Amino acid sequence: MSGTGFELDPRLQADTQHIAKLPLCDVLLMNDARFAWLILVPRVAGCAEILDLPERARERLWQEINHAAAALREVVPCDKLNLGALGNIVRQLHVHVVARKEGDAAWPGPVWGSGAAKPYGGDELLSLVQRLRQQLASSSLA
């Protein structure tokens, strides 16, 4: 389903670590240790809104969001999963899946614009990336 000419927005590339490649989306981990935060980016050039995707791709996107959210919740237990596709700064279509815990650095408000990111330490990042990759690979994607 990936479109030709797709390039990941440089801001997403700078702020994330690649986790996995699903049939439609790249799964990225936001490099902010305050929140376990995945970003799914459909590999479709020029796509800014979910409604810009063809119907079958929209269905696939929701399947992949569910898959990534379930994997994140398995790896990082949380009180609430926040989903969002804002795109006010980065126009390229991307969907945030954020594991929230009561009392986290932004609770109960949104994570966007809530202080400066705290990058993961090297070993912490490697461990989380490995666990997320294993969970995404071990659970089935419809």
UniProtKB/TrEMBL annotation:
Residues 38-107 form the HIT domain. Transmembrane segments: none annotated. It comes from the Bacteria. This is HIT family protein. It comes from Dyella nitratireducens.
